[in-house]
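Inputs:
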Amino acid sequence: MAEGHGASPMSKPKILIQLDTDPHPSTFDAVVAVDAGAERLLQYGGVTPDNVEGLVHGAMFTRGPGDLHQTAIFVGGSNVEAGERLLARVKKCFFGPMRVSVLLDANGANTTAAAAVLAAAKHLHLKEATATVLAGTGPVGQRAARLLAGKGAKVRVASRTQAKAEAVCAAIRARQPSAEVTAAQIASPDETAAALAGASLVISAGAAGVELLPESVRTQAKELRVAIDLNAVPPVGIGGVQPQDKAVERDGVVCYGALGVGGTKMKIHRAAIERLFQKNDLVLDAEEVLALGEELAR
Amino acid sequence: MAEGHGASPMSKPKILIQLDTDPHPSTFDAVVAVDAGAERLLQYGGVTPDNVEGLVHGAMFTRGPGDLHQTAIFVGGSNVEAGERLLARVKKCFFGPMRVSVLLDANGANTTAAAAVLAAAKHLHLKEATATVLAGTGPVGQRAARLLAGKGAKVRVASRTQAKAEAVCAAIRARQPSAEVTAAQIASPDETAAALAGASLVISAGAAGVELLPESVRTQAKELRVAIDLNAVPPVGIGGVQPQDKAVERDGVVCYGALGVGGTKMKIHRAAIERLFQKNDLVLDAEEVLALGEELAR
Amino acid sequence: MAEGHGASPMSKPKILIQLDTDPHPSTFDAVVAVDAGAERLLQYGGVTPDNVEGLVHGAMFTRGPGDLHQTAIFVGGSNVEAGERLLARVKKCFFGPMRVSVLLDANGANTTAAAAVLAAAKHLHLKEATATVLAGTGPVGQRAARLLAGKGAKVRVASRTQAKAEAVCAAIRARQPSAEVTAAQIASPDETAAALAGASLVISAGAAGVELLPESVRTQAKELRVAIDLNAVPPVGIGGVQPQDKAVERDGVVCYGALGVGGTKMKIHRAAIERLFQKNDLVLDAEEVLALGEELAR
């Protein structure tokens, strides 16, 4: 049963409802939420589109319109697709002004992709850049490709499987009809070299401990100016890049490792949580998270 | 192992232990608890009479007698009968002064029934009233009937099934031997009309989206002065009543819809949480929650 | 992805991550944590060595080195051996300076054993004492025996099963080669009497409601000076000792019951939680918890 009253005279505590698709809600996301100023954290694990409605209704129907921005939802979990489905269901629960702000950052995908794109933008005009995203079909890679395309870069979505890469390109084009995205298969070093030909930016978004770009191939990419590797676990994704690298020049290329990008990712993550409590109608997904990172970088 | 010490010099934070019979503890109850001043909330889902003992013992045996009122238990969940069984088991864990206060408000049944009775009491002398409770065998309806009977009203417990209505009447009489309660079957509009004959109050406590009292039947109930509908989802329970109605006169009848009662329900809910922390030996069930609402209304 | 930044200007809230091997994390441990100053409590039930890694990584990788001591882990649950296995796995997640402090107190075993040994040390020089630990193969008994041996006492580990007692002795000797521990079978009152012959201290650490030392046998133990019973549920473990006894003389023996030891146990438990937040590299198991209790007793 909803409450009809308006804003209360005293400010209500900021409550973040952590909806996680894993059985145990992430401690990582919980600690960041606390440090970002969430005064109360309600943690839920094992959340699915089928059991989330009551949890969202409880967020919508407890505080008056003037206080609704003090309640917000975080959607997380290790499975990014499950997080996307959950976010879609959460949004369906809202109606009219009866809503709370929500951030999707399953597996850190949005904040990580945004941090990588921001790092690249420090050194390149993205509008004029050609970018190759290795493992561009994974959850972080898809988001990096989509964000780069949104910034006007020519984007090559590289994957071991051509068909998967093309599906991702199609999905990006469906969102952004003017996006310049092409699929690239990288099942061999030669194909990887071809995928990098003429690229000024490479982002490697593959699984932990898998090298996607050998050093020998990287050093042959003559136009390459920025290399960003998001894998912190050796062997890293781009040969020769160190996890700690933060704008370190190697062979004439500005390099970032996973830890080098991590500081920015954390700042964006915290800022996104803070932002949730400013209004009650925000939905922060990849683009919104990147825009927030750009504000912070100014 | 219990602690023998007395009150500590510094006041300890108010801890509310939310015991919910559903797998995910209610966010609704959690937000209300926070807004009512619970400084720490320990949330538990999937709580049953079989697994609750340790949770209650942990509440009883951790703080000294002088601080025990700073720990309290909330029993909730969507299934009111499961909540009642859980409350009974929680109370069995207590002994002597070793206890903490506990509030039952599974599915909001106690606070909703109390708010409905309070709304009626603004316009009627309940002692002289004849009240018909539609869906009087449901969790909220049973409580409304019991509370009205306790206030001296003549109560008709109306249900599609006569036997169920009679069982509820018997249960009320077992608690309150002087209660004037009768069962009424309402399997047809004619029966519903008969159940309302001479009634000055009708409370509809049925399931969401089910009309129990058609407008045409309502307007024929000539003695009716107050109509309260607790169903917010169209079609509402009483034809013609709007969910937002709060003492709105329609066809000479003062009408309340679910949202119109909701503000009072929320105030009572919050006040009940606050009350828990004043003493360590309170058990707040329907009657206690109504008494609290009456205090607030003064 | 780890964050590289140092200490933030503002102190971050103290976060305790409660990892419990039971389905529902203990309310007892939660309330004590709150009262000990944990500003935020993240509760997790059903934690096993197989699912704990991500939870520990989230604790390690969210705050900078200067703030890591503001995050800590508590390992609890009713099964002490499960807690020990969980602690071992938690410690394996740490590397170099990337770690947080952790306290093991599954079933209160460490704080209870430490409190019992501290009670004994008030009345005896443990170095010169001969101590019999009844149920010395149980989780609390093993820890009491190990702690007493560490203090130089001659320890008899008494159990209904000789082989189990010998296994515990072997385990203690493996840790402390100079430990003077012997196994004693107590399958009959005569064996119990023999196990107590010449002992100045007896600690009974058996299950609730089981008498291990009948009063008639106790009063025959002529050298006995201190008797400590850790079972609060009648019949208690040592005949004639009352749960509330705290240094009460009975038949010339200084007696402690479970509640008499409980106040000290609680103080140690709280102090151990507080201690966690002073550094980020503490592992508080039995010996460290006892050392902390000794500091408090000074």
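The longest strand of chain A covers residues 15-20. Flag for discussion at group meeting.
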